[in-house]
Amino acid sequence: FKIFGTSYLLASILNIILFSVALGVFYSTITSFFGKARALISAAILICYPTLLIDILYPAAEALYLLLLSLLFYTFLNYLKYEKKIYGALTAVILGLLTLTKETFILFPVIIMAIIFIRYLPELKRSLQKIFFLAFIYIFMLLPLLTYNYHTYGKFALSQKMARITETLPANLTPINKEKASALKKTNSIASIKNFLWERKRFFLGTGTYGLMRAFRYNTEKLEKVADNPKDYFRILKEYGWGWRLFQYSALLFVIGILLSSFFAIVMLLIKKRIKEAAAFILIIFYFLAAYSWRYNSRYFIALVPFLALLSSYSYSIIYNYLRDRIINISSCHSRS
């Protein structure tokens, strides 16, 4: 907006361009390291992911950080494969740009460093050299802004918003009151997990429906009031027409498919004893779950989508290869007979 003025149309067009470039980089990277089939599936998931339908058109940072995440895939995987310092330096620079774009990524380099540590086990010296190299460049990337904000707000923070959050952080971390504590004691662990997932259903199962409806100038206040009650939600959704019901059901089915196939992929990686790969994905997923443990709008889930797309592609490629081999075997049996 500072460059072009407050033109939403121009910002949306720029977002579409950034997202298109992100898809190209993402597809090329997955093709190089995991094969064309997985690249096609991963790219298709990103294109069809329902929340992105509105968030890419909305003038926000999603398209930019998806591009940076795609570039991070490319540089980091090349760094692990070829061990060239240029790829390591670029990885750290992109991590810095990601953090400057979206503050949630501020501790994401810790996960990248943990993956490096796991990758080069048991070579401790080798992994530590690579970790310190990345950490130095990453801190150097953030240092000018941190220094500026220290002089402006009196705190080492990326923004005024972060400075405000860190000021109230000790209070936010104090123990919960006795009433909540006693309520938690009465519930078992399974019920606690169920409540946790239910409260965050828009994070895990968000489809961007409200945003899309607002884009078409629908009033969604009545629908939002019953968002916590699925029965009432789908009953009222009928009033908006069959098209929205169809979108909601198909979008939900799509998202659930991604979540289940990602879980299946983790299980398969563990079964096949590809422990390091499974550990890398588990670390990444838990990082974002922890980062958004309090704020869990469906828009925040987008940071996980590229990683889940790659995981899902592993599951679907297993199914594809199995069906392909079955068809080839049946065809060869028929030709012999």
Q: Please, could you describe this protein's structure?
A:
The chain is mainly α. The protein has 17 helices and no strands. It has helices spanning 8-34, 36-48, 50-55, 62-82, 85-101, 108-119, 124-153, 160-172, 178-186, 189-199, 201-205, 209-215, 221-225, 230-237, 242-271, 275-291, 305-336. Mean pLDDT is 87; it is low at 173-184.
List keywords for this structure.
337 residues; mainly alpha; globular
Morphology call? globular
The total of beta strands comes to: 0
Low-confidence stretches: 173-184
Q: Strand-residue fraction?
A: under 5%
Helix content: over 70%
Distance between the termini: 69 Å
Give, in order, the helices and strands. Answer: HHHHHHHHHHHHHHHHH
The secondary structure category is mainly alpha
Mean pLDDT: 87
Q: What is the number of helical segments per DSSP (H or I, 4+ residues)?
A: 17
Rg is: 23 Å
Main sheet overview: none
Sequence-ordered SSE layout with sheet pairings:
Elements lengths: L7 H27 L1 H13 L1 H6 L6 H21 L2 H17 L6 H12 L4 H30 L6 H13 L5 H9 L2 H11 L1 H5 L3 H7 L5 H5 L4 H8 L4 H30 L3 H17 L13 H32 L1
Helix pairs in contact: 1-2, 1-4, 2-17, 4-5, 5-7, 6-7, 6-16, 15-16, 15-17
Brief account:
The chain has 337 residues and is an all-alpha fold. The chain has 17 helices and no strands.
